[in-house]
Amino acid sequence: MEATGRISNPRHSVGAMRFFPVLLLAGVLLLGASRPAVAQEETAPPPDDQSPAQAADVKDPRRACDGCPPRRIGTSLLQATGINVIYGLANLARGQVTARITPASWWENMQQGWVWDLDDFTVNQMGHPYQGSNYFNAGRANGLSFYESAAVTAFGSATWEFFGETNHASLNDFINTTLGGITLGEMFHRVGWLIRDTHAAGKRRLWSEIGATALDPITGLNRFASGDSSRVSDKPSDLVPSSVRGVASAGVLWRGTQSSAFTGVGDPFLEMDAYYGDTNTGRSRTPYDAFWLRMRFGGGSAFSEARVRGRLYGQPVAKGLQFSVVQTYNYQKNDAYETGSQAIDAAIGTTRKLSSRTDFWILGWGGLTVLGAVDSLPLGLTKRPEEQASTTDKQGVSEGPRYYDYGPGSDFGTLARFTHDGHDVVLLFYVGRQIYSLDGVRANHFLQHARVDLLFPLHGRIGLGTSGEFFHRSSYYQDAAQTINTYHYPQLRAYLTWKSR
Amino acid sequence: MRSVGLCVVLAWLVPASALAQDAQPEQASRLWIVAGGASATLRGHCRDCGANFPFRHAGAILGNAGYRVNSRMDVGADLLWLQWQNDSGRIRATSIDAVAQFRPWESKGFFVKGGAGMAFVHNFVRTLGPNPDTSKALSVVIGGGWEFNPKGRLGLQLFAMQHVGALGDLQTTNGQVSEVTANFWSVGAAIVVR
Asked: What does the pLDDT average to over A196-223?
């Protein structure tokens, strides 16, 4: 009723007209890349691992290299603010009451401080990290380093929480937007540079720039605005990976249940792995010069898995061991649990030659989960109740109840691979994740996933694979009865694989 | 007021030696130490509490110890400690966070800081119901400030920080108190040693 009244109210038509200057402001902020340099901004520092030869080619002192964007700190902050304005206007156009911000709502939010919110799992664990990736790339698009762009992400996220919505600033959103935004943002930024063909001209060049803009809109828009999108130059050296490879797997999986190992009905799935750079070797101080991305569609839900593991630090240590610090973004949905988290892990791995044709690589890791979310039902409920039609639907206000918990925790795991004649033949994977629920039903959730893959090369890049998996969940509630709930089930897969060269 | 006075005194005592030093880069160590005091304001929140919690004020101690990564970035541990008295007794809060401090412009003292860790909030919710005493919480800190003599071995910083202790849902003998958070705003000054 309120929504109808709002649309028919002529005051709001007038109000909408008032938003035109705001829209214009947002456009100007986002296209601010084309304006002259701000006097107080400094000459760009050389990017990590930049060679002296490339530094010598620099003509614009604000550019760390010929293909690098000019360094503009102020513009990056303006563009992060512009992104907030765009998201705010989009929410306003959708009719969300939380978008009706005023200076009074800003002051109230600042007085209240951080709180927890009750938004949907998907909004909090995927929507906010994506929004954060826009802020991050406002930094990267303006010549800022990884860590400088991380600060821009926190700035964009905090200003959105306090000033972009009328509801109170959400602590879980701030963490998810900032950490998830850094992970997704750097990944999108690097993949964008992978797509971009900076030596090409004409239509080929245009489409490569458009493709990169779809992944990393802020860098793309800045390049179109400044003319960099048509200028021939080398790519920034620190954005060129040592190697890139990908594997796509498509097939059918059969999920069991707690009481029955196998069910007759299979679900189709598509899984994609991308390996950017080599995470297993080398000294590295350039964040995300190597990362691993996994995405899975189908297999019980439309989107069932996303993992990003980006290397922040790499160092060979004694006896052929490789030490790394990695930042991770995780999302997984299966019958035992739905979880999403942001974590920092320390990992150690080694490669051993078992014979002239067979190699063995193993990696072990452990780390801290800054904030994890896991689906959870209040004690006494065995099934999630049917969704009730909310009077606040589309209003942007979540009143709950929320059927997932939030909290910090830890994770650990191992990954091993046997390779024969350059082909992966056996993969072993295990991850354990503990989330201590602070917000929600007080409990320790322990989630485990083990997987074994057997792979057979068929012809060229095509292969055949089969895998067995096991999912296990234990939730230790801190109620008077010390309730423990467990759920586990096996899963089988058969699939075809295709790998890039 | 006493804590504000303490900050002012700190702000005036330190520069006499710190700012007198040459701003040229010295052979700085990798050590990063910050110690100071602040005037802090606290406000609690929980989702379904009828009470509109008041702002409370107290003096606070803040410190950092860590590693100077380069001329613009430091990483380390952040400690905030404060206590105050209310009707139900003495309340004490300690936040220990892993933080990164960063100066966007190398030639200027402006810095931003952020991090996360744990908070220990003693006796925070006793007014809501007996039982929870020391409550462990997820802690997040953001803030910024200005550092005088950032390239020297000894400097001074003025800062404004916001710490939050997210205690989550607490069980008391009166029932569950949902989504409890404690926000701490602090403004102060500190000595910086590198």
From this structure: 96
The single-letter code of the amino acid at A280 is: N
User: Which pLDDT score is estimated for A378?
Assistant: 77
Provide the whole-model pTM.
0.85
* Total residues found in chain B within this entry: 194
Hey, which residues does A84 pair with through a beta bridge? Answer: none
Question: Considering the domain A244-258+265-376+403-499 in this protein, what is its CATH number?
Answer: 2.40.160
Q: Measured between beta carbons, which residues in chain B are less than 8 angstroms from residue A154?
A: 112, 114, 142
As separate numbers, helices (DSSP H) first and strands (DSSP E) second, chain A gives 12, 12
Q: What are A83-137's pLDDT values in tens digits?
A: 999 999 999 999 999 999 999 999 999 988 999 888 888 889 999 999 999 999 9
Give the residue from A48, A115, A442 with the most B CB atoms within 10 Å of its CB, the best one to mutate.
A115
Task: Of A440, A136, A180, A446, give the one whose Cα is nearest residue A330.
Answer: A180
Query: Strands A484-499 and B134-148: what pairing?
Result: unpaired
Q: Taking CB atoms and an 8 Å cutoff, what residues of chain B touch A111?
A: 43
Q: In this complex, which of B45, B114, B138 lies closest to A113 when CB atoms are compared?
A: B45
Beta-carbon separation of A175 and B116 below 8 A: yes
Residue with tokens 């059927």: A403
CATH of domain B2-17+30-193: 2.40.160.20
**B138, B162, B164: best mutation site toward chain A, by most A Cβ within 10 Å?**
B138
B164 contacts in A (CB within 8 Å)? 113-114, 171
Q: Is the dihedral of CA A79, A80, A84, A87 positive or negative?
A: positive
pLDDT at A430 > cutoff 80: yes
**Domain boundaries, given as residue ranges, for chain B:** 2-17+30-193
Identify all chain A residues contacting B142, using CB atoms and an 8 Å cutoff. 154, 158
To the nearest whole Å, the CA of A440 is away from the closest chain B CA by 6
Record: contact A439-B162, CB cut-off 8 A = no
Q: Answer yes or no: is pLDDT of A34 > 80.
A: no
- From start to end of A167-302, where are the E strands? 244-255, 267-276, 291-298
More confident of the two residues A480 and A226 = A226
Question: Quick one: CA dihedral A194, A196, A201, A206, positive or negative?
Answer: positive
* A114:B169 CB<8 A: no
Lowest mean pLDDT among A148-162, A293-307, A383-397, B112-126: A383-397
Option in B47, B171, B183 nearest A114 (CB) = B183
Residues of chain A contacting B116 with CB distance shorter than 8 Å:
175, 370
Per-residue pLDDT tens digits for A336-370:
999 999 999 999 999 999 999 999 999 999 999 99
Q: Cβ–Cβ of B179/A439 closer than 8 Å?
A: yes
pLDDT at A39 over 60: no
CB pairs under 8 A between A and B: 82
Dist CA A405 CA A439 (whole Å): 6
pLDDT tens for A302-313 read 999 999 999 999
The ipTM is 0.81
Residue B116, chain A, CB below 8 Å: the answer is yes
* Domain regions of chain A by residue span: 2-239, 244-258+265-376+403-499
> What is the four-CA torsion angle of A85, A87, A91, A94, rounded to 10 degrees?
110
